[in-house]
Every structure is written in structure tokens, then in C-alpha cells.
Design goal:
This protein is an alpha+beta fold and about 210 residues long. It has 3 helices and 12 strands. The longest helix is centred in the first third of the chain and has 23 residues. It is rod-shaped, with a radius of gyration of 28 Å.
Length: about 210
Amino acid sequence: MPRQSGKLMRQRIEQAIADLTALNGRPPTNREIGTAVGVNSTGHIEYHLRCMREEGIISHEPRKSRGITLLRQVDAVAPPPTSVRVPLLGLIAAGVPFEANEQVDEYIDLTEGFPTGADIFALRVKGTSMIDDHIDNGDIVLVRRQSYADNGDTVVALLSSNTSDRGEATLKRFYREKGGVIRLQPRNPEVQPILVDADKLAIQGKVVAVLRQI
């Protein structure tokens, strides 16, 4: 049984060497290997490295902190993707504007590749006025907080309202027209654009990604 246990540990160490080398672009130290396999004693790791050198699995220069080289091909196991939490601030109308909601309803977890950061928040889409931009009812949009927009940007716009102190929010494409008028353009031929004076509108953010609901 001890021999079998030692063999399994050396297999784990071999895999850890491959994974850490691929991840960091350099061989791991004994301590890094120990952390990866759950062993605190660097002396214990050194013992197994010596056995692996004698078995022809690695070349190892003990006087170098990163003097380990695998002598056979071992496929590295990719680490799990990093997850980042983004606040989901409720619904955004892709249709008729409705009262803005700034309360955090819940959070969503995003993996690498999506825009993240303190200025990123998420909204769930209600309505189909942006369907031609592949933003459908129930989808989630990631929004970067900013108070400006360029023509053609898809934005979260807050409109002044006589019925709400917080205003009404909508998701549309942004265009400047003559005379200080802003056109909030839907992407659905069945929905009419919204024309509003620039001083009656505030940009809350720009859409930077869409999470489709399948």
C-alpha cells in the first residue's frame, strides 16, 4: 500500500508540474508544488522529486528553486475560468420607457472574456424594440457606466418624467439631431423612435455586451 500511495502522489506531482509550468510559463518551486497537491512539507516533496528523477520522469537540479523539467509529455489541465460578480440592477425597457430602478436585485457571475469592473452593471431586457440588434426579451445586457454617447451607441437613457422623481429608463440607439434634439432609435420597425430635448435626457451607460437567454 505505501508504494501505491507514493506512486499516486508522484503522479499528482507530475501533473502539478505540467499545470503550473503551463500556467506561469516557468517551472514551479517545491513550495508551489506542495501547495498544488496539498502537502505542506517541502522535504516530502523533495523526496518524491528525487524518486521521480531516479525513475527518469524529471530532470531536477535541487540547488535551483525552479530547476525541474519534465522528461515526458504531460497534458496540462486548464484552470477553471475566473468568475466575477456583476450587479443585476433590475429591468430595462426595450419598448416603452418605465420607472428607473437602481436597487441591486441580484448578481450574475461572469467568466473571463466579458467586460468587468466597478463601472459595469447588468440589466435584464423587457420588450423587443431592439430585436434587430439581437437583443430580445429576457436577455441580459452588460452596461458600462458613462454619461456620454456617440451616434449609434446602444445606451441606457434616463428620461425626465412628470410621474417619477427618478425618471424613466429605456434601452435604445442614440443619435443627435438638429436643434438639440436626441433621437432614441429602436431596432424594430414596429416601434416608433423617441424624440426628446437633450436637457430632458441623461445617459446612464453604454451597452458593451449581451448575454442571450436560450
